């Protein structure tokens, strides 16, 4: 019995030593490289904006290395809309931090510019393997909220008012300001009660089941406003949001419920 115990002990010690000797070579081993994130949304005010993304590598060297990225053909952003810096990995480091900046003036007045970057090389690295995960960035203009009277022109294609989150009426379009003020507007429904300030004060006249206009006033100094639409039970609802400057800044036409994107640059 003692002999068996001794053999087992020797084998265990041998296996333990073998495991301890398996050490990754961070200088001469295979180099793995990848972006730290896969997507970034970058709202851009008039003064421009920037974001940082790390590039990680699994080895280090005694000299600087250059990170090479390429713009994917699926990108819609043009070269004047952004800049990229930080493409050098310092000696002895396991990566670098890229800085991507966006240019408000060059961005489209409406919609977003999409930039897709592929990581293609890290110079001076052994047996390089790059994680197949591009970096996707979206740039769009971000403007301060315009104070004044905002007009919401509302329609219902069936002519029986809005049925939003309820088949008998439901909630209205809500606008929540940063100070907690909440506006709620909608087109009246004859089928049931509806919360908020609805046209006709709950009484539907022959025309306000088909179309109507509501106005809210956003005061000076308002820093944030969330516009939320609760839903469209029958696919009949439409509206457009007119800024104090007289431009269409947002809207909806029989789509999904949720937070609305308002173009305050208009």
From TrEMBL:
PROSITE patterns: PROKAR_LIPOPROTEIN. This is Calx-beta domain-containing protein. It comes from Maribacter litoralis.
């Amino acid at each position: 019995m003692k002999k068996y115990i001794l053999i087992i002990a020797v084998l265990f010690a041998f296996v333990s030593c073998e495991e301890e000797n398996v050490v990754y070579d961070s200088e001469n081993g295979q180099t793995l490289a990848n972006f730290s994130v896969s997507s970034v949304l970058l709202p851009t005010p008039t003064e421009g904006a920037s974001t940082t993304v790390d590039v990680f590598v699994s080895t280090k060297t005694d000299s600087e290395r250059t990170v090479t990225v390429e713009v994917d053909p699926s990108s819609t952003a043009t070269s004047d809309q952004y800049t990229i810096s930080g493409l050098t990995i310092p000696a002895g480091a396991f990566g670098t931090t890229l800085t991507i900046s966006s240019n408000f003036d060059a961005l489209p007045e409406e919609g977003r510019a999409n930039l897709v970057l592929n990581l293609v090389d890290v110079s001076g690295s052994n047996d390089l393997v790059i994680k197949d995960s591009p970096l996707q960035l979206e740039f769009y203009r971000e403007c301060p909220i315009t104070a004044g009277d905002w007009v919401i022109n509302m329609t219902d294609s069936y002519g029986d008012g809005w049925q939003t989150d309820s088949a008998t009426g439901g909630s209205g379009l809500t606008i929540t300001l940063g100070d907690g003020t909440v506006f709620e507007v909608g087109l009246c429904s004859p089928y049931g009660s509806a919360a908020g300030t609805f046209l006709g004060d709950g009484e539907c006249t022959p025309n306000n089941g088909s179309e109507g206009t509501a106005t809210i006033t956003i005061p000076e100094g308002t820093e944030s406003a969330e516009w939320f639409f609760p839903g469209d039970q029958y696919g009949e609802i439409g509206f457009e949001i007119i800024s104090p400057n007289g431009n269409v800044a947002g809207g909806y036409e029989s789509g999904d419920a949720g937070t609305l994107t308002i173009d305050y640059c208009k």
